[in-house]
């Protein structure tokens, strides 16, 4: 799982200001939906390929992070392929017909989902939980005058992201322990498999509560009382690479808007 896992490296994407990085990632995910033709989606893929090259993330690691969503992507491909019947018929079996429009829509939607998942994985791999918290807190700080607890929100999100890989590893450890005791999580119908997960959930919840209690004790022992009186080890300062990423995203957005409006 890429969410919450930070891959330490010294790449331009790692050195980006987290505030700009989060902004570019969120806007890029929204901009993808402006692309309704192959040309626009190809431009979005070129932008993503540049980000992957600038991140220094091994392609094997990036591919493994996408395994949890393969089933969802395949399901989306099949649904679009079967239920969209526009265009010429390519294959027919009874009432089931595969058309050129369905195949095109299925490939387009699958590629769009792929770009969404890869961009999310890149954000997780290139941004540490501490930097992610700083990047979230910065844009929320102006709203503190309206009662928005910017520091507390960013702290909770960073802690949640940090605990995701810990709980996943804990789940794997419990599953291996239960399997060694004779538990079977692979055979049977879906209802049987869901029932077999129950012995895993109880120790997993207990482990999560134990981790939370240990973290609370550690924070209290270090006199943590929120944002008041705290200073930063690293002051965030935007660099040329941050503005270059924003400019590239602005060019991509403008191109997609033009392609969408031009008949």
- End-to-end span in angstroms? 41 Å
SSE run: HHHHEEHHHHH
Helix content: 55-70%
- Total number of distinct structural domains: 2
What quaternary form is this? single chain
**Strand arrangement across the biggest beta sheet:** 1-2
Q: Classify the beta-strand content into a percent band.
A: under 5%
Task: Describe the protein.
A hairpin with a 2-residue loop joins strand 1 (89-93) and strand 2. Helix content is 67%, strand content 3%. The chain contains nine helices and two strands, in the order ααααββααααα. It folds into two domains: 1-127 and 236-263, no CATH class; 151-230, no CATH class. The model has no long low-confidence stretch (mean pLDDT 83). The protein is flat. It is mainly alpha-helical and 263 residues long.
Summarize this structure briefly.
This protein has 263 residues and is mainly alpha-helical. The chain is built from nine helices and two strands.
Salient structural properties:
263 residues; mainly alpha; two-stranded antiparallel ribbon; 2 strands; 67% helix; flat
């Amino acid at each position: 799982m890429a969410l919450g896992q930070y891959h330490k490296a010294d790449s331009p994407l790692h050195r980006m200001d987290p505030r700009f990085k989060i902004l570019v990632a969120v806007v890029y995910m929204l901009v993808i939906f402006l692309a309704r033709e192959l040309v626009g989606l190809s431009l979005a893929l070129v932008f993503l390929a540049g980000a992957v090259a600038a991140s220094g993330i091994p392609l094997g690691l990036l591919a493994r992070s996408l395994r949890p969503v393969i089933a969802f992507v395949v399901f989306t491909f099949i649904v679009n392929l079967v239920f969209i019947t526009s265009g010429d018929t390519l294959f027919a079996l009874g009432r089931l017909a595969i058309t050129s429009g369905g195949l095109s829509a299925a490939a387009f939607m699958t590629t769009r989902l792929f770009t969404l998942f890869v961009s999310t994985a890149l954000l997780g791999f290139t941004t540490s939980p501490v930097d992610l918290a700083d990047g979230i807190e910065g844009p929320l700080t102006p709203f503190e005058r309206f009662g928005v607890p910017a520091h507390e929100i960013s702290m909770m999100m960073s802690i949640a992201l940090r605990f995701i890989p810990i709980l996943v590893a804990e789940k794997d450890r419990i599953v291996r322990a239960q399997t060694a005791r004779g538990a079977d999580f692979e055979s049977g119908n879906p209802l049987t498999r869901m029932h077999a997960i129950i012995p895993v959930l109880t120790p997993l919840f207990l482990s999560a509560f134990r981790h939370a209690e240990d973290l609370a004790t550690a924070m209290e022992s270090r006199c943590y009382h929120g944002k008041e009186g705290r200073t930063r080890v690293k002051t965030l300062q935007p660099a040329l690479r941050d503005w270059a990423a924003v400019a590239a995203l602005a060019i991509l957005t403008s191109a997609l808007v033009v392609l969408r409006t031009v008949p």
